[in-house]
Amino acid sequence: MKKRKQIEEKFFRVLMFISTNLIVIILLLIIFSILYKGLPALSWSMISQTPKGGFYFGKEGGILNAIIGSLYLSIGSTLLATAIGLPVALFMNVILVKHKRFIDTIRFFLDLLWGIPSIVYGAFGFTIMIYFGIQTSLLAGIITVTLFIIPIMVRAMDEVLKTVPVGLLETSLSLGSTHSETAFKVFLRQASPGLVTAILLSFGRAIGDAASVLFTTGYTDHIPTSLGQPTATLPLSIFFQLSSPIEEVQERAYASAVVLTVIILVISVLARLYAKRYQKHKINF
Amino acid sequence: MKFRIGRHLRSRLHLIWMIISLMIVILLPFILGIGLYIKSTLLLEDKKFGELLFSSDWRPLSGHFGFLTFAISSVWVTVLALLIAGPICLLTAIHLTQYAKNWVLKIMHPVIDILAGIPSVIFGVWGILVIVPFISKVIAPMFGVETSGYTILTGAIVLAVMIIPFVLNILIDVFKMVPDELKEASLSLGASKWQTIKLVLLRKAIPGIISAFGLGVSRAFGETIAVLMVVGNVTKIPSGIFQPGYPLPALIANNYGEMLSIPMYDSALMLAALILFFVVLVFNFLSRVAIVRLEKHTS
To answer: Is A136 on the interface with B (CB under 8 A)?
Structure first.
């Protein structure tokens, strides 16, 4: 009897070990398979040129339009989302701090929003565009992606601001600062490393999402020069090139996937470094 | 004196900025839902919702919009993805919270974070590169089936990998919520570590586990691009996991261009988006409520 129990524990421990390793292996497999297929096709002209005539038949050109387009789109939407998300997170943690019920409701709300698929935002953004007669453009994309990343950003910032001790709030208020000053001068500074990490995280979401920009941003071979123009994005460029039957174009899709993966990995590393490095500026209690 | 007025004015403005932003965030889901509903009324006035949902007749050009094929594909892919990801997440979460040494955690944290941050189009590319040939050359022949590899199962595997970091993170939090005293009490009564995990930890965490899976389902249900790339997109009710499928999000994404000319078609796709929105919201709501309950219960 005792032996059976031990065997059972052994058995499950082996399974646990396997599944933990499986996750690591899957991640490595994803990264290596993308690099293996994409690196040979990656060249300088790929990332320094816009598509030339016949690009989609395997001729000259690159995906600079998509790289720049994606950067414009995600920087724009991250800035806009920060302008809306940061005050909400501060409001929750500085001004509403006494109203536990209300904060919990807002948090619950944000968690609900967090899970709404990006394609729903895309479809919604599209209907709004049609309603106002706006065409697919950088601006429409920025607005849609902003709506999509706001809940993610606010929730991440909220987790950071939650850890700021109440003592700091009380001290700041007792020295005669207003609530707003406490929020924007004291809390902002104290929590800045975590907030930057939250912003980078949202930036990563914004640059990687395809379904929300599919309807709203359109696609073009040019680098946009104004907010009203359609804009190419990296995820869509990968998606479109991969659906081509021509092999050279598919190869380029893999190369574009390398570019996107590298951008995401860099953001992730930056977020970690930033969080660690600026930890020391925090006031400790 | 001038300085003080400026200062208070600025505080006031900051406060207004904060309140307006909060209003935007709170109104967002309502505007989303209402907007999609208004767009879909055109179709709903014409046909009953039940009729649309239980008809598999999808011929948009002649005005037939039956969602059954897509709904069934979505359910297949989602359920299968959860069946694959669920056990892996559960085992890993127990390992990481109960057995793993510190250095393992130090490796696993960034691994989970990076996996969570990978864009869905990259998962799609990986699916085409690795999973599609794996299914068509290895798995399907094992069952004596011939397929291109673009199947329900392929979509489910890719989806499973995508929801793993998400579900795993929640499960880890859930297991951490179970108070140590309970485990200690069980250990001091002579139970082995595994018995304690099985009879105390898992039993206590069941509501949390269910809600983690519920959130995984809602995540999987709405995932678009990665699934669209590997699932085959054939408008036919799938009869097995080696058949191609056509889930709802893929339907919306694939037809966004052509729907413009036909108002009814446009309306049908917006209804599809509304169904997605609603299903995800319900799953999310129930799971979150269960988690909040668990938090209150254990603290």
So the answer is: no
